[in-house]
């Protein structure tokens, strides 16, 4: 079946996530992507996709006549067409409302402050139900939204965890989902390792996907934080997708630790260096590069001898903002083959696009997708 995805804030990364999970993906160049799959995708586990929709094959007037009349219709329209604006989207919504009213429907239109309704507006208006619908317009084609990211669930998992520490960085749950999904569509019950587990964000998202989770961290306090957070998640399993079979958390240095086998996949945010609020001076940057590079190379070398060929390894490594607005990246990719890995390439996304950061964020995360040789 064909699906349309409304991509997140960094669409190139979202495209890579979809490509790993579903194969060939067509970028529409407007924050939209089209793909086909034999099983219904679940937006709850897609960190980079805000909405999912299916195509409206019939003429839109005929399609609207199939909506149930038992309840009032709430209608929203998102216009992704070239040159779209809030006014074009609102005019289209009002046009469709007139068609529905003429055919005996009672209709409320969701007002457009932007050409495309935000995922927050769509979710809180429940525009994915039988009588509460959102139509996406792209040029002359319409799509019917079938699911929207539950932004409240993300906030709950992020802010209500009992153990948080801003000093070690705050990995967003959506990014944790992306890192996990870039490992591929693993069989249920697969065992995922995070060797830099921190407060356990990657592991909590892997748990919600139904994977067994295995975490280690050199910091004993982080190990305890992860344990507390995963225990909390088990009690408060909002949006849970499946019950994991095993949780294992240990203290260990990723550069020399011997993990218990088997390991089916590895996903992690590695050591990112010291927190920074301004771009570092050259001497400070050089020190950070050397220290982060030493730890990450040591980890990859240690891991390579313990996992099977083709095992997916997805890591987020640091990149630093420079005064000119560019980011300085670790010189890691040139050494990847010598360390025992191949870098995964994407059709729609280059390695230069796999940089995750907020506007003017000093320490960004470069995502590197590997497969063990």
Per-chain topology:
Layout lengths: L1 E6 L3 H12 L2 E3 L4 E5 L12 E7 L4 H5 L8 E7 L6 H17 L4 E3 L9 H6 L7 E7 L2 E8 L2 H9 L13 H9 L9 E4 L6 H8 L3 E6 L2 H16 L11 E5 L13 E5 L12 H23 L7 E10 L5 E3 L6 H4 L1 E3 L11 E2 L6 E10 L1
Parallel strand pairs: 5-6, 5-7, 9-10, 9-12, 10-11, 12-13
Antiparallel strand pairs: 1-3, 1-4, 2-3, 4-8, 7-8, 13-14, 13-17, 15-17, 16-17
General description of the model:
With 373 residues, this protein is α/β, with parallel strands linked by helices. The chain is built from 10 helices and 17 strands. The protein has helices at residues 11-22, 60-64, 86-102, 119-124, 151-159, 173-181, 201-208, 220-235, 282-304, 336-339; strands at residues 2-7, 25-27, 32-36, 49-55, 73-79, 107-109, 132-138, 141-148, 191-194, 212-217, 247-251, 265-269, 312-321, 327-329, 341-343, 355-356, 363-372. Strands 9, 10, 11, 12, 13, 14, 15, 16 and 17 form a 9-stranded mixed beta sheet that branches. An 8-stranded mixed beta sheet has the order 2-3-1-4-8-7-5-6. The chain starts with a strand and ends with a strand. The mean pLDDT is 93.
